[in-house]
Amino acid sequence: MRIGLTYNSLPEKDIKFKTDEFAEFDDISTILAMRSALESGDHEVIMIEAKEDAYEKLKNSKLDFVFNFAEGLRGNSRESHIPAMLEMLKIPYTGSDVLTLSIALDKTRTKEILCYYKIPTPNFQLFRSASEPLNKKLHFPLFVKPNAEGSSKGITGKSLVHNEKELRKRINIIISKYNQPTLVEEFLDGREFTVSILGNNPPKVLPIVEVIFDNLPKDVPKFDCFEVKWIFDSPTSGIETVVCPARIDKKLENKIKKIALNTFKALNCKDFCRIDMRLDKNNVPNVIEVNPIAGLIPDPKENSRFPKACYVSGMTFNEIILSILNVAIERYNKNKSI
Questions:
Q1: Which residue has the higher pLDDT, 110 or 219?
Q2: pLDDT value, residue 245
Q3: CA distance 176 to 318
Q4: CA distance between the termini of the chain
Q5: Tell me, what's the pLDDT at 249?
Q6: 170, 144 in Cβ contact below 8 A?
Q7: Among the listed ranges 48-57, 69-78, 308-317, which one has the minimum average pLDDT value?
Q8: Rounded to an integer, what distance in angstroms lies between the CA atom of residue 189 and that of residue 163?
Q9: 58 φ/ψ angles, rounded to the nearest 5 degrees
Q10: How does pLDDT run across 111-152, given as a tens digit for each residue?
Q11: Sign of the four-CA dihedral 175, 269, 95, 32
């Protein structure tokens, strides 16, 4: 097949460690590894970066299918821009559709849907300004983050606040820096897990990853913030930050899997997804993030969570990429015949 690979690449090497502006974009080594994986399946691969000229390239490339890994350039619905173009051009693609990608990037809308389906998620409030009254049902400590960012953008050690003065200061910083509303939610101090799902009929939960914070220096936040994800959880740090499969009993494992699959279904995710959870004081897994375009860094030492789960289940990186493509093709062919 003639496969388009849509992506956004870092403008320069290691820039994500200097600023979080491009944290969602991928290093060219990841993109080239994905191309190589697709080529290993005897596919011809056409590289198309998700820039302003992407529509013309998609239109003129005579593609059979697209492996979509584009984060999008800008805007609160940026992850849905390439899929919207592809649907206009009648080109099938991997991953979730326009609506799901738009909703999942909006953390508050995601949590509202989870609440509707009675899927556990921390209590929350959206702030469009720091002067809005705080809901009296929310209890400190609270966690503050941009409403429509990924890859831990805007999440630092200062995201955890313990009083109203800290809260309003942090809200002002987020709104000013990221030009968007701020999501505030109750902080859950339990264990943290990330759950990867692959496939559709039925979707399969891969080995659960636990993110551990006990090995971090004392002054480093004990949650998955920008510093933890991109500095300490790296091949050069020498610190163990993830365990897969997670060391949990069968009862908790089944709870996590059930909530992950319910979340996947509630948001109408497709093909692959990563869902992050924390345990509350009653050991109930709560969904804190949903990422329908999960990170796919190929180097096992990088601890990219979706590939980590796949590697533990016995897959190679080429098999991961081809599996995502193949379940998408299978889904498309089945829907086309209805």
A1: 110
A2: 97
A3: 41
A4: 23
A5: 97
A6: yes
A7: 69-78
A8: 17
A9: -65, -40
A10: 999 999 999 999 999 999 999 999 999 999 999 999 988 666
A11: positive
> In percent, how much of the chain has pLDDT > 70?
89
CATH topology of domain 2-93: Rossmann fold (3.40.50)
**Cis status, amide bond into 245, omega within 30 of 0:** yes
In terms of CATH architecture, what is 192-336?
2-Layer Sandwich (3.30)
Nearest to 263 by CA among 285, 294, 293, 290: 290
Domain ranges of the chain: 2-93, 123-186, 192-336
Q: Which residues contact 160 (CB under 8 A, 6 or more apart)?
A: 141, 142, 143, 144, 187, 221, 223
The dihedral sign for the CA sequence 203, 273, 123, 266 = negative
DSSP 135: P
Helices 317-336 + 305-312 axis angle, to 10? 100
Contact 39, 253 (CB under 8 A): no
Tokens of 286: 């709560």
Q: Which CATH architecture has domain 123-186?
A: 2-Layer Sandwich (3.30)
> How far apart are alpha carbons 198 and 204 in whole angstroms?
5
The CA distance from 208 to 191, in Å, is 12
Distance (Å, whole) CA 220 – CA 53? 42
Spell out the residues 6+ positions from residue 282 whose beta carbon is closer than 8 angstroms to its own. none
pTM above 0.85, yes or no: yes
pLDDT of residue 20: 58
Q: Which residue has the tokens 């919207």?
A: 84
Q: Which residue has the tokens 């920008």?
A: 226
Query: Which tens digits make up the pLDDT trace of 245-279?
Result: 999 999 999 999 999 999 999 999 999 999 999 99
- How many angstroms separate the CA atoms of 66 and 27, rounded? 20
**Would you report the helix, strand and coil content of the chain in percent, each value rounded to 5?**
35, 20, 45
CB-CB contact of 195 with 161 (8 Å): no
Q: Cis bond leading into 141, ω under 30°?
A: yes
Residues in the chain: 338
